[in-house]
Design goal:
Strand content: 25-35%
Structural class: alpha+beta
Largest sheet: 2 strands, antiparallel
Number of helices: 1
Strand order of the largest sheet: 1-2
Length: 42
Amino acid sequence: MNEQNEQAVGFYLKMGSEVEGRSEHDGFGKPYPLLHLRLAAG
């Protein structure tokens, strides 16, 4: 998920996701920082 999309980040964190990692570039090599999320256990 694009880290700059604060509304989406807030939604997924509120729904129980956790940030698992971060990338400086998207899959096309563009400088769009991505957050890697996973659904929290429990």
